[in-house]
Amino acid sequence: MQTGSLNDIADSIRTDFTEKNEARDKAIALSRELIRYCSQTIRAIHRREWDRADEQMAEVDNKAAELRAVVLPYPELYHTGYTQDGFKEMVEAHATYAIIKDGPLTMPKTLQVESSTYLLGLAEAATELRRFILDILRREHGDMDEAERLLTWMDDIYDQLVTFDFPDALTHGLRRQTDIVRSVLERTRGDMTQSIRQQRMQEALAQFEAKFVASTQKED
């Protein structure tokens, strides 16, 4: 049985708190950097700046590895909101990149994240797809096939998320995030339906105008 004086015990605990506090400060700073790089990655993806996106994604992975190394010795820091928020944004960046590039999703084990964090990141990627779809719809001759593909991804992600009916203590807010995905999905589907109708109407008017001009020329 080991014993010690009160001062020794207090000094030991103080050292423990000091180390954890230093790790906490580093984790908060790294999480902020990680989130910033994730945001820059998604911005580059929107602009189709793929070289830039690749560079930023490499920084994302590096910062995630640094953050993981700092918090893994301290489970209470690993599971805090700021740490998991950073990892969630990393998942969103990876998922958005894969979907837009029409590639395979990266597995949770490869990204070294918790299952709940992965699902939350995937949910945010689904809502991010709305921005890509709206960008397509705003173009005069938008690629509706691409918009349909992205909408299908949103739909598929929602269909999977809604099946995870587990306590919030395990999923950490997934149900609320799933409701957000459903709302965004419904709005996006409505926007696409309206855009398709307008496009068809414009095509019909163009065809009518062409026929009218042709018939007028014949009469002349």
TrEMBL record:
Single annotated GO MF: sequence-specific DNA binding
Classification via Gene3D superfamilies: 1.20.58.2140
Top-rank lineage group of the source organism: Bacteria
UniProt xrefs under PANTHER family: TRANSLIN AND TRANSLIN ASSOCIATED PROTEIN X
Name by which UniProt lists this protein: Haloacid dehalogenase
Taxonomic lineage: Bacteria, Bacillati, Chloroflexota, Candidatus Thermofontia, Phototrophicales
